[in-house]
Every structure is written in C-alpha cells, then in structure tokens.
Amino acid sequence: MKLNKWHSSIKFKLMVSMVGITLIVSGLSAFIAHEGSVAQRQGIAKNFEDQAGSISEAIAAQFYERYGDVQAFSINKILLDQSPKNVPALVDHFNKLVALYGIYDGVIYTNAKGDVIAANSLSSDGKPIANAKVVYGKNFSDNDWFKAALAGEFTEDKAKGFAGTYFGDTNIDPITTEMYGTEKYGNTFTAQVKNEAGQVIGVISNRANFLWVESEYVLAKTTLDAMGLQDVDLHLVNKNDQFMVDYDEGTVVKRDLTRLVKGKFAEEREGLAVRATKGSGQEFGYYDDPTNGAKIAAASHNVSEKKWIDAIGWTVILTTTYDSLYAEDIKMQKQLYIIQGLATLIFGFLSWMFANRISKNFLQVAQRLGVAAEKSHKTSVELTVASRSVSDSSTEQSAAVQETVSSMSEISSMITQTNSNVKECTSIAARVTGRSEQGNQTMRRLASAMDAVNHANSQLQNMANIINEVSAKTMVINDIVFKTQLLSINASIEAARAGQHGKGFAVVAEEVGNLAQMSGNAAKEIQLLISDSQKQVLQIIEVTQARSKESQAVSQEALQAFSEIATGITAINERLAGVTQATHEQELGIQQISIAMTQMDQSTQRNSSLAAQANELADDLGKQSAMSFRIVKALRTIVVGSTALKTKRSDDIVDQLMEEDTDAAVGQNSERKSSESNEKNSNLLNLVGRFEEKLNNKSSSNEGGASGIPDLDGDDISFKKPA
Description:
With 723 residues, the chain is α+β, with helices and mostly antiparallel strands.
C-alpha cells in the first residue's frame, strides 16, 4: 500500500477521535438530561395541576359545611317564636353563631311573608354593625333567594345527599352591604324554617363572606410558595366564565370588584378557561400572553367532588409564566450546558496532551521496532539454514528408522512363525507320546496273549495225552468187539447144535454179532480219526511252540524300543517347552523393540515435520521481518503524517516495553530442541542394547539348543540351531 505524504498524523487523528467522543458523550448527556428534564417538567406540571385539584377539594369541603350550616340553624326551636318580645333573644343567638363560625357577615330571619323578624347586630369579630337595624321593616318577598326557598326550589344533588338549601352564586350582597356600609362580597345559603307541625313559618338566610373560599386560596398560595412557585396567579371562575377570585400575592385576597363577577376570564386568557370549564376533570396547557407575548402555563380543575353540586359549575384556574414554573429545571439545564462546555474544553486540552504523548511513544516504538526487525531478519536467515540441516538429518534418520522398523517387523514375523511351528511340534510330540503309550499297552497285551498261548500249548499237550488214552481205550474196545464176535460165533455154533431149541438164542447171537461188527467198524473209524487228530495236534503244538518263542523274543524287543521312544519323546517335550518359553520371550522382546522403533519413527517423523515447519516458519519470519520494515515505515507515516521522520531516543516507557532480547530466546529454544532430540536417540540406543543383551542371555541359558528346532535322527535325540 502506497502512503501519501499528506497523510494525517496520529496526533491529529487521536485529537479528532477524542474530541468526537467527547462531543458524542456530551450529546448523549444532553439527550439524557433533556429526557430527564422532560420527565421532571412533567412531574412539575402534574404537581401544579394537582394544586388546582387540591383547591377544588378544599372548596367542596367548605361548601358542604356551609350547605349544612343553614339547615342546622333553621331547626333551632328559638326560631319558632316570632313575637317581638323574642327578637332580642334571636339577635343574641345570631350574634353568637356569627362569632362562632367567623365567616358569616349576616344571618337574616324572615317570616313566611318575607318580613324581617331578626338579624345579627354584631360582626364576626364582635364589633357592632353600624346599620344593623336597617333591615328591620323590610320585606324580601321579591328576592330570588326568598322566593326559591319558600317555594322549595333548592340547589340540590340528591344523589350526593344535597337537599333543602338554596345556594346563591357569588355577588356583591346588597343586604349586608347596606348593613355594614361597605361592599360585601360573598354567597347566600337559605333554608326554610318549619314549626313542629312541619309547616313553613319562615326563611333563614346566611350571608357568607367569600372568605370561606378565599382562605383556601391563601393556604394554596402558601403551599405553592413552599414549592418554589412564587409567581402563580390563582383564579376561580363560575359557569359563565366570570371571575370570582383573582389572587396573586399577599396573606389576604385583594378584591378588584371592578373585575369580579364582571370581567370574563376567557376574554383575557384567550379561551383557556372556556376549554377548561367546558370539559371535565382537570386540564393543563400553555398559551401566549397577549400583553407581552410571554408563554403562560395554566392548570384548571372543575370543582366536581362528592361534597359539591356539579350544577354550580365553578372552575379553579392557576396560571404562571413558563419560565417561573420550570425555573429550577431551566437553571439546572444552564448549569449542565456550562459544565459540558467546560468539560469539552478541558478534555480537548487533555486530548491534545495525550495525543502528543502517544505520538512520541509511537515514534520511539517504531524506531525500536525497526532495530528489532533487522535482528529478526538476520535470525530468520540463520534459522533457515539450521532448519534445513535439521530437516535433511531428520529425513535421513526417518528413512533409517523406517528400514529398521521394517526389519524388526520381518524378525517379529519369523519369530511368530517359529513359535507357531514349535507349538505344532509340541502338539505332534504330545500325540506321538500318546501313541507310544498305546503301543506299550498293546505289547503288554501281546505278551500276555503269548503267555496264554503257551498255556494253551500245555493244554494241547494234555489233550494229546487224553487222545492217546482214548486210542488205548479204543484198542480195548476193538479187543472186546473181536471177543464179542468170537462169542457170537460160538453162540451161533452152539445154537445150531441145539437145534430147534437154540433158534432164539441163534437170533440173539446173530444180532450180537452184528452189533459187535458195527462197534468194531466204529472203533476203527474212531481210531483213524484219533490218530489223525493226534498227528495234527502234535504238529500244531510244535508250530505254536516255535511261534510263541519267536513272538516272545520280538515282543521283548518291541517293549524295549517303545520304552526308549517314550523316553525320547519326554525329552523332546521338555526341550520343546524350553523352546516355547524362549520363543515367547523373544516375541515379547521383539514387540517391545517394534513399539519403541514405531515410537522413534513417529518421533522422527514429527521431528521431520517440525523441521519442515521450522523451515517454513524461518521463511515466514524472513518475510515478516521484511514486512516489519514496511510496517515501521507505515507507522512513522501514521504518526507524523509524512514519510520523513526525525525522533529522539526512547525514554523509560519504551525501554520497559522493549527489554527482552529475541536472539537469546531463539538460541535457548534451538538448544533445548537439540537436547531433547539427542536424549530421545540415546534412549532408543539403550533400549536396543538391552534387548540384544536379553537375547544373548536367553541363548546361553538354553544349553546350546533351547532356542533351536529339534532334529530326530534314529535313536539319538539332538537339537540343531537354526541357520
């Protein structure tokens, strides 16, 4: 990226940024203050408006009392006696009521015809009324208040409990004005007077001074002053929008009777009162004063309470200037703007100081960064050369380790095969041992059978002897047959000699001769058979004896051979057990070496990969060092706004930031990696050496052939080492 020489400096940027932040914060503060001011002004306006409501409630409460006072006065039994002699008592009674309540200028009592019977002679402060007797002899039958009360046309609101009193709106009362000789401003409260039979016998009228309302305005003014609202005008208008109270200051309401119940508020206040009195509830708003153009704030509240008759139509109105109503808030706003302005100026100055300081520090860091970048470049070149050497060595080591791992894998495979063959030989030897044991048992049975044959030969000899005896007995039989034949012949001769008497004996002699002939023939045949049997038995005995002797000799030789075979097989089994154990241990050792070689191969591959990464990182470091030079140049441009740069040496802050020596850290890291690699190679060589020693110990402990393959040559059993 090509930097322009007119590029703005970091000092200017920092100042602009910090001043901008200050302005933003000030703007936000102003916005928050404005929102707070709006809420505060709404609260002030609400309080101002509520004061109008408070006055309205106070007027209603006073009205409720006055409305009931006249009815209370009318039911006093002293009013039942209208005779002249009771007049002094009535006057005294009225004077006491006026003094007690303090708000009534006069109490007028007339009969049903309108003639005055009695009136108070003292004022509320106990002073005599100059023209108190002027009312006597007058008739008020034509007055509105008398006619309305006598006719029962009262000012009522029965839903709220108001009934039985006529209320006369505010005016200058002609009766009390004539009595006192000065204008009296107020209202009338009039009620009927009835006898015990409930008949109307007269009318009583309380002439209330308007102090009963104005005193509430004085109290409200005191409250407003305590709230800080001194410049408030308090007004009361009737339903015709006419003034009844126009009060702004003092402890006593000043009455301008030229305006009261004559001038109209709407004409002076441009319609605000019309809007307030025509509506319902309370209102708040602003208008411009036509006399001076000042902005006026006004709050109005229609007198409409539970203790008030709405038909009367009074409205309380409070007015003040906008600046007076919100004086405290306006003052706080001005103070806030002044504080924000001062804070902006102070922060701007501090921003300039801070930016100047930061700019100097950046220049010092840039200078140190340039030196460090130059050192990094040199280090990266050396690191590249070293990493390439390490990478080449790691590659060669990895190839050698891979060949070793391959060889160890082949050896492991051969040992595994040998172990399998040994196990198979062991199985075959076990089977041969079983067979040889079976052969021994068979030969034992053969020897036993030969003994049985010899025993059978002896029995055959006995049979030959028996045959000889039978042959001898047969010869005896032949002799008996021969003699029997001779006797038969002799008998036949003798029978012939006997003649007729010897015929029967001749037949017997003939039969005996026949039997003897047959016995002789049979004896000859038996002798022939016995002679043949004897010859055959003798031949069998001779052959059996010869074979038996030969079989005994062979069986003895076979027994001796099988015994020697069993002994040899037992020795083979013992040797095979040793071979199996040695082969198993060799297999375990080869597996351990294979695992170690695999780990070394993985370590070598990781070293090779790390060397390649180190080589790449060295190249990247070289590129980054070159980039550092460009960054330094850009940093200088950013700081001073120009490619030209003249700076001082670094101060304490820069020295603290640039303490570490990169070359020392790189050297320590390289030395640590080399040490770890040498340690791994040494451990591997030690492991191989221990395995070779283990193999040699196993070979020497097997008596020259425990690890070999058995070779069976004739009767000798020997073991040969595998090639």
